[in-house]
């Protein structure tokens, strides 16, 4: 795809002081074209996509989830998920980094007090900050100890820190042994003692910057603590897990859409029918048509379930601290349904892409393998079996999933 400039995006932003949802999606499509123009080479190279992350920053899309009272675009999560999906069609690694920025913004909104929310989000808009993640609640190697003047000292390592490298701020968690719970804080990435390692080396999602972050005697001031240890987790606080799981759903759907579109293009423009086929073209082959029909149904089911869950998440997230346990539970069930469907769609479409394109489809210049590698890497985030278990329990007994950071 040919390289495009930001001229279209800038014109849209200037022409609309408060862009509509359609304007934001058009901006996202322009950005997706930019990412797609280098996606194959960058996927094969790996490393940190500094230039592309600056394109995301320049697009204005980092302000989407920030309320208008703090200078942001004030858009609902249902729109943010649509943007994530469009970016993921072209580059699911950068879509992941973009989505996790907004997930950290939601952490401030869900965990922070009024002063913290105003400070962090106003600063994010004014300085065009990019947020990264060092929360990983399953990795308890980073320990929080009380500082005599208030706040904490963070010490230790944290893994799977998506978007931390190249970020301006991070949300960080540390294990507090006395209370057997987490401390969550918002910190500048360049805070003394914070070291972001360049050690992310996976078969897919190669530019998510999801490596290790080390904390060495990192001072956390009291006003930087978003969630104190031992504090009861409300349904609203647990709602962050819903937003995170739905990020994954839309990444999977975007990968499936990207693979499906690439298969279509190849079939219509380059593929040749099998020599024993009577079809005049690959697209006219009934076996190829059958595959497309089956994959279309899988993709459509994932899209519809993802959209339904996105609308539900956006509606309840807007209630803030008033979110109830039932509302969180209903959202978790809708997300589990969408996650099962999107998981299968992403893996099956990215795999059958090769059955459709045939032997020439494995040429490196096409980069078709990135869809499967990205899907396979990301669908391992948390076991699908437990989503199916939760859906089974809800079906049989009406039990909502137990609130955790993954459900």
Which features characterize this protein?
4-stranded mixed beta sheet, Butyryl-Coa Dehydrogenase, subunit A, domain 1, 407 residues, 4-stranded antiparallel beta sheet, 11% strand, Butyryl-CoA Dehydrogenase, subunit A, domain 3, 3 domains, 11 helices
- SSE class: alpha+beta
Major sheet attributes: 4 strands, mixed
Q: Class of the largest domain, according to the CATH hierarchy?
A: Mainly Alpha
Spell out the helices and strands N to C. HHHHHHEEEEEEEEHHHHH
CATH topology annotation of the largest domain: Butyryl-CoA Dehydrogenase, subunit A, domain 3
Backbone CA Rg? 22 Å
The count of helical stretches stands at 11
Strand order of the main beta sheet, please? 1-4-5-8
What percent of residues are in strands?
5-15%
Mean pLDDT: 94
- Poorly predicted segments: 1-16
Q: Could you estimate the helical fraction of the residues in percent?
A: 40-55%
If classified by CATH, what would the architecture of the largest domain be?
Up-down Bundle
Distance between the ends: 38 Å
Silhouette: globular
How many distinct beta strands? 8
Textual characterization of the structure:
With about 400 residues, the protein is an alpha+beta fold. The chain is about 55% helix and about 10% strand. The chain is built from eleven helices and eight strands. The strands form two sheets. The protein has a four-stranded mixed sheet with strand order 1-4-5-8, covered by helices on one side. The chain has a four-stranded antiparallel sheet with strand order 2-3-7-6, with no helix packed on it. Helix 9 (about 325-355) runs antiparallel to helix 10 (about 370-380). It is globular and about 80 Å long.
């Amino acid at each position: 795809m040919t390289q495009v400039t930001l001229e279209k995006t800038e014109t849209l932003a200037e022409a609309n002081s408060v862009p509509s949802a359609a304007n934001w999606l058009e901006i996202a499509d322009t950005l997706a074209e930019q990412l797609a123009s280098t996606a194959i080479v960058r996927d094969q190279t790996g490393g940190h996509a500094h230039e592309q992350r600056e394109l995301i920053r320049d697009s204005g899309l980092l302000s989407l989830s920030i309320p208008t009272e703090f200078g942001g675009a004030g858009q609902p999560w249902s729109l943010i998920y649509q943007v994530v999906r469009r970016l993921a069609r072209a580059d699911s690694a950068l879509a992941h980094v973009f989505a996790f920025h907004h997930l950290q913004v939601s952490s401030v909104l869900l965990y922070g007090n009024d002063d913290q929310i105003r400070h962090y989000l106003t600063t994010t808009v004014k300085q065009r900050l990019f947020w990264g993640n060092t929360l990983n609640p399953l990795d308890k190697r980073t320990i929080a100890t009380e500082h005599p003047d208030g706040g904490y000292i963070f010490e230790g390592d944290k893994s799977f820190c998506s978007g931390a490298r190249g970020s301006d701020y991070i949300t960080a968690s540390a294990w507090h042994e006395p209370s057997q719970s987490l401390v969550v804080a918002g910190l500048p990435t360049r805070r003394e003692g914070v070291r972001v390692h360049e050690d992310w080396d996976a078969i897919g999602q190669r530019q998510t910057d999801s490596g290790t972050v080390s904390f060495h005697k990192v001072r956390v001031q009291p006003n930087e603590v978003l969630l104190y240890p031992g504090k009861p987790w409300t349904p609203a606080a647990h709602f962050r897990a819903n937003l995170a799981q739905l990020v994954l759903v839309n990444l999977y759907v975007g990968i499936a859409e990207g693979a499906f579109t690439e298969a279509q293009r190849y079939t219509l423009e380059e593929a040749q029918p099998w020599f024993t086929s009577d079809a005049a073209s690959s697209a006219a082959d009934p076996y190829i048509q059958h595959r497309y029909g089956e994959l279309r149904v899988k993709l459509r089911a994932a899209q519809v379930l993802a959209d339904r869950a996105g609308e539900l998440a956006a509606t309840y997230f807007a209630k803030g601290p008033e979110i109830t346990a039932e509302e969180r539970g209903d959202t978790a069930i809708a997300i589990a349904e969408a996650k099962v469907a999107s998981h299968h769609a992403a893996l099956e479409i990215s795999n059958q892409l090769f059955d459709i394109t045939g032997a020439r489809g494995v040429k490196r210049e096409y980069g078709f393998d990135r869809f499967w590698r990205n899907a396979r890497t990301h669908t391992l985030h948390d076991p699908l079996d437990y989503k199916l278990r939760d859906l089974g329990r809800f079906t049989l007994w009406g039990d909502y999933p137990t609130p955790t950071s993954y459900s």
